[in-house]
């Protein structure tokens, strides 16, 4: 078998929250993402989805709620609310293996950052930073949504930001 050499596309991400309905409101209102599957309860049983979840989570997960959203560039966002979900005091454990943030792009970076704060989130930085101060308009800022998930905002595309070496 020959080795395939092409970049895979990102299909979706899964985000865990303590309140699914509040998260759907936040992500549709603040991020502008489309709700493509309304909040649904999944229970641990012998259905196809129940068995698949047991394969992933192990036995005893009981139930969870899930909603599916889509970004403007067709990336899926699965929002999960598990029984006993907690909103940690500090969810920014960057030193641990795993995904510690996701990034969205908005040319009105400051406007989106303010909207996140207005809707219960918070800033992780005092102000946006420039990658090329005085040279190019590429900006970024780290924020936190109301559920403790870390959100980075870029003013420009990933490719433009890093193609000339941002550091």
UniProtKB/TrEMBL annotation:
PROSITE patterns: VOC (PS51819). One of its GO terms (molecular function) is methylmalonyl-CoA epimerase activity. InterPro entries: Glyas_Bleomycin-R_OHBP_Dase, Glyas_Fos-R_dOase_dom, Lactoylglutathione_lyase, MMCE/EMCE_epimerase, VOC_core. GO terms for biological process: L-methylmalonyl-CoA metabolic process. It holds the Pfam family Glyoxalase. Residues 9-156 form the VOC domain. Keywords: Metal-binding. PANTHER family: BLR8189 PROTEIN (PTHR43048:SF6), METHYLMALONYL-COA EPIMERASE (PTHR43048). This is Glyoxalase-like domain protein. It comes from Parendozoicomonas haliclonae.
